[in-house]
Recover the amino acids of this structure.
C-alpha cells in the first residue's frame, strides 16, 4: 500500500500540487481525473520520483520517508517497485519489441539473457504481440507500441503500475485494444494508478476515483460517487463535457 500525505510540488512560481493526500491500497485500481494542467501527471511522476516532490510524506509498505530528505535507498525502492507506462510509449526505436521488453530485465534486474528472453516472450504473448516480437517500433501501430510498453512494465513485476494517459497518443480505433490489455491486468489483481480522460473506462475499471483541480483533490470515492452522484458543481461541469455514457446516470 502507498500512503501519500501533504505532497507538494511547484515549478518556479507555479504550484502544481498543493498538499495532496492519497491512499493506494494493494490490489486496487485508482483513477486520477481532472482537466489538463490539474497536476495529474505530476502526481504520478512524484510517486515514481521522476520528479522530486518539494514537501510531503510517502509510505510504501514498510518504507516511510519525508520526501525532502529521501535517501538514495528510498528513491531506489520506489523506482524498483513502480513502473510507468507513458503516453508517448518511450520505446527504444532501434530495438525490437522483444529487445525493448528484455532491456529492463537485463540492465536493471541483471537477469541472464536467456531468462530475460523467455520472460519477454511470455509477456508479449500476454498482450497479444507474440507474432510481433521481432518488429521494430516503426513497424508497429501506436496501439501495438503501447502494448509493448505495457509488456515491458509487466515483465519487471512491479508492485504498482502507473499509467500516464496511456491512450491519449492513439488513434480512436487503437484505443480499445490497449484498454482491453489494461483491463486484463486489473483482473489479475495488479495495483494500478491510471491517469486518463477515458471516463467510461475509468468508471468500469477503477475501485477508486480521485478528481484533481489546480493541484488539490476536490473529491475521492467510488466511480459512482465521483462521476455520477457528485454534488460538486465543478465536477458535474467536467463530467458533462467529457465522453461519459448517459446510461450510467440511469
Amino acid at each position: 500500500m502507498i500512503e501519500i500525505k501533504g505532497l507538494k510540488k511547484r515549478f518556479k512560481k507555479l504550484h502544481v500540487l498543493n498538499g495532496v493526500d492519497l491512499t493506494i491500497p494493494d490490489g486496487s485500481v485508482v483513477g486520477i481525473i481532472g482537466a489538463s494542467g490539474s497536476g495529474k501527471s505530476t502526481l504520478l511522476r512524484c510517486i515514481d520520483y521522476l520528479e522530486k516532490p518539494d514537501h510531503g510524506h510517502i509510505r510504501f509498505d514498510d518504507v516511510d520517508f519525508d520526501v525532502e530528505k529521501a535517501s538514495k535507498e528510498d528513491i531506489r525502492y520506489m523506482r524498483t517497485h513502480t513502473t510507468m507506462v507513458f503516453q508517448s510509449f518511450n520505446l527504444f526505436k532501434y530495438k525490437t519489441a522483444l529487445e525493448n521488453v528484455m532491456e529492463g530485465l537485463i540492465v536493471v534486474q541483471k537477469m541472464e539473457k536467456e531468462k530475460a528472453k523467455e520472460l519477454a516472450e511470455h509477456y508479449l504473448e500476454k498482450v497479444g504481440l507474440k507474432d510481433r516480437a521481432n518488429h521494430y517500433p516503426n513497424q508497429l501501430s501506436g496501439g501495438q507500441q503501447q502494448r509493448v510498453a505495457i509488456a515491458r512494465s509487466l515483465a519487471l513485476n512491479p508492485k504498482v503500475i502507473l499509467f500516464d494517459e496511456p491512450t491519449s497518443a492513439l488513434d480512436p480505433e487503437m484505443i480499445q485494444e490497449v484498454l482491453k490489455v489494461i483491463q486484463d491486468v486489473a483482473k489479475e489483481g495488479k495495483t494500478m494508478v491510471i491517469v486518463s480522460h477515458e471516463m467510461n473506462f475509468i468508471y468500469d475499471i477503477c475501485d477508486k476515483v480521485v478528481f484533481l483541480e489546480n493541484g488539490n483533490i476536490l473529491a475521492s470515492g467510488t466511480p459512482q460517487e465521483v462521476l455520477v452522484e457528485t454534488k460538486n458543481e465543478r465536477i458535474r461541469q467536467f463530467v458533462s463535457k467529457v465522453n461519459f455514457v448517459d446510461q450510467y446516470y440511469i
The chain has a mean pLDDT of 92. The radius of gyration is 18 Å.
